[in-house]
Amino acid sequence: MRSPIDDYLERVLSDCRDDDGGDVATGNRELEQADPSSFGIALATIDGTVYTAGDADHEFSIQSIGKVPAYALALRDRGLEEVLERVDTEPSGDAFNEISLEAETGRPRNALINAGAVAVHGMIDGTDATDRTDRIIDLVSTLAGRRVEVDTDVHRAELASDDHNTALAYLLRSAGKLDCEPDEVVDGYAAQSSIKVSCRDLAVMGSVLANGGLSTGDDERLLEGWITRHVLSVMATCGMYDGSGSWMATVGIPAKSGVSGAILGVLPGQVGLAVWSPQLDAQGNSVRGVAVFERLSRDMELHMMHVAPTGRPALRSVTEHDGTTVLELQGDVRFAGAEIVASRACEGFDTGAVVLDLTHVRVMDDAARRLIGEVARRLGDDYDVRIEDPNDLMDPDDAANPDT
């Protein structure tokens, strides 16, 4: 069975393709060559399943999304207290490249604007820019599940147009917030921004963050839990620059954008999301990317304030008896819980009949209800399907006639 989530993402891709406003980033000769029609989406769950649509495997430079792993490394190397002495955690309310520091402390407002990111890069342990960049590459590779590398053409183009960041570095040095030579830090920061990734890479990286820093494959600890919590907190309040407040109210997914046209989103406990399309709005965020996140948040009820009261897994058991497979659900079922059922259904069953037992489900939201109904309908092509729904959680048509 093909997952309904694959088809849903393809539909979202098609619907949002008409959002063709905005412009490709300028100021970097390599980014200026991006194809405006490029468009990819990826969704990765904390159980290790990845769904994609469009150009999800096309590589592009990570740009400002690289601030996230760099921040995590600085926190690991220096500890929270020392990092906070040099970079605050407050929204700036200004553009991402504003040349400004806190008047009282000399700190950048947060780690996800350029001034803060330059200061953060200087706090990563390493003997020089190459050493620090290599450590960031290693962490991105670990979180993405494959080896990544710097796009040398983009790196050279970044350095050719980096007067602004050089000014920030010297300003930080004069304020006592940068120990390294400004030119060296700017070189490393440019390389950090030039790491090549895809939507799939970012979504998988996001799923690890959503899983509290644990690998989605075997629960190996890839990033400390306190670091994950802190980084996601700053992403929630500062990740979309001066549009972060409206983003959190309407989309409700901690996120970080980059001027190559990518947006990384992390919904704790559920999924990592990534969208890439190069045309940007006035705030430097992908026009289509914003549209996709708004759609996903609305359709699948992925707003972080829409949470299940209990932490029990949605799929209680899968058993076989007298030629029938019974999938027993429980608790409060949201999108992530329904996705687990869909993923299991895609593996197929050795019996001729399937029962979706909702007896122990307390609450099911609309997104989960639609997904479970579609799973039942598709299973009906190959199995005798029945939904046990004593609490009338499903729409009557879905529960009574899943194969129609």
UniProtKB/TrEMBL annotation:
Domain Cyclic nucleotide-binding intervals: 49-115
Residues that, per the record, bind substrate: 64, 114, 158, 165, 189, 241, 259
Gene3D superfamilies to which the protein is assigned, alphabetical: DD-peptidase/beta-lactamase superfamily, STAS domain
Cited PANTHER family: GLUTAMINASE (PTHR12544)
UniProt GO MF annotations: glutaminase activity
Iron in keyword set: no
This protein's name: Glutaminase
One Gene Ontology term from the biological process aspect of the record: glutamate biosynthetic process
Gene name as annotated: glsA
Domain STAS: 314-387
Quaternary context: Homotetramer.
Lineage: Bacteria, Bacillati, Actinomycetota, Actinomycetes, Mycobacteriales
PROSITE patterns to which the protein is assigned, alphabetical: CNMP_BINDING_3, STAS
Superkingdom of the source species: Bacteria
Similarity remark: Belongs to the glutaminase family.
Catalytic activity: L-glutamine + H2O = L-glutamate + NH4(+)
Pfam name, any one: Glutaminase
E.C. code: 3.5.1.2
Entry keyword set: Acetylation, Hydrolase
